[in-house]
Amino acid sequence: MNFTYTEEQEMLKTMARDFLVDKCPKTMVKEMAEDEKGYSPDLWREMVELGWTGLVIPEAYGGTGMTFLDLAVVLEEIGRACLPGPYFSTVVLGSIPIMKYGTEEQKQKFLTTIAGGEAIVTFAITEEDGTCDAASITLPARMSGDSYTISGTKLFVPDAHAADYLLCAARTGEGNEDGLTVFIIDMKKTGISVTPLKTMGWDKLCEVTFNNVSVAKDSILGQPGKGWEIIKSATEYAAVGKCCTMLGAMQQSLDLTIDYAKERSQYGQAIGSYQVIQHYCASMAIDVDGTRFSTYEAAWKLSGGKPAAKEAAIAKAFTNEAFERVSTLAHQIHGAIGCTMDHDLHYSTRTGKAAALSFGSSDYYREIVASEMG
């Protein structure tokens, strides 16, 4: 694999950073954390005009037809800026599963509206125990004539409060992996209630409750009872995508820390002149580069349609723990100032920790790596 950006990716990275520096200052991040919507509709429209919502959607459905590796470049910059809003939910959790498993009719209906910025989409996977394995999905969807009736609760659903459509993993049969089905549900349907949850990362996670919600058979994504393949694929993309956003947050923390170590004076000299601070910064750089290499290898494999379960699991397991080490050292070097609301460091820490808890812990992904090793 060549880790050098292509000319197009370099331009994409520069454009994304310049745009987010201008449009997503930390004052806006804080403002959106306290906002009911959690994102700026004006900023969303500007992202749509830049083609970001259709980045990986084929041109036939109104997108730009770029790769997941290209999207990884943008996601890293989004993580660096701590961009609030439903971009990750819509593009990674929503459009990619529909691209891979949707019927032509579903692609025409949903991908075109996503690319055009007319629809916000998310994926409801987790339930009470918060894990992503097949056994934890128990929400029942019972066949009733020509439709299914869904009753129960999904937890930690990102951006469900703002979503127009919800991909929902439900159980339609006995067994473990074989009894799962994914539905595309219109959030305007009667019987759906959404409750935003308080989170440490200021991200908008929600509890979604279904009370006898009727869903037609043509709303099934893929095949009935074969939803585990979709869920597993979506989780792989989501895990690698979160690694990209954590990488951006880690790089931002490192950059802030290096600048601070050069400027902060103690005992008549910059604290960066002390060996212990230099070693702390070196350890941070090692973890940032390790995250970059493992993350982009997994993104490269996913982009090429290659099996990537092991690489995605390695990236998420490593990144979760590398982020913890990087953020801890960043705060140790900054001291109290890094924890204040007036400093930018805590934004990266908040969003990165939230991403580390998403779509599986390090131990969950160690199990996958062990399984892939036979």
List its salient traits:
374 residues, 10 strands, 11 helices, globular, alpha+beta, single chain, 4-stranded antiparallel β-sheet, 4-stranded mixed β-sheet
Written account of the structure:
Helix 5 (87-101) runs antiparallel to helix 6, helix 5 (87-101) packs antiparallel against helix 7 and helix 7 packs antiparallel against helix 10. It is built from eleven helices and ten strands. The strands form three sheets. It has a four-stranded mixed beta sheet with strand order 1-4-5-8. The protein has a four-stranded antiparallel beta sheet with strand order 2-3-7-6, with no helix packed on it. The model has no long low-confidence stretch (mean pLDDT 95). It has 374 residues and is of the alpha+beta class.
In brief:
With 374 residues, the protein is of the alpha+beta class. It is built from eleven helices and ten strands.
What topology does this entry show?
Elements lengths: L6 H17 L2 H8 L7 H9 L18 H14 L5 H15 L2 H12 L5 E4 L16 E4 L2 E12 L6 E7 L8 E7 L5 E5 L8 E12 L3 E2 L5 H37 L1 E2 L2 E2 L4 H29 L5 H26 L10 H12 L5 H11 L2
Parallel strand pairs: 1-4
Antiparallel strand pairs: 2-3, 3-7, 4-5, 5-8, 6-7, 9-10
Tell me the strand order in the biggest sheet: 1-4-5-8
Rg over C-alpha atoms, rounded to the nearest angstrom: 21 Å
* Beta-strand percent range: 15-25%
Structural class: alpha+beta
Number of strands: 10
Report the average pLDDT across residues.
95
Pick out the low-confidence regions: none
Give the distance, in angstroms, between the N- and C-terminal Cα atoms: 25 Å
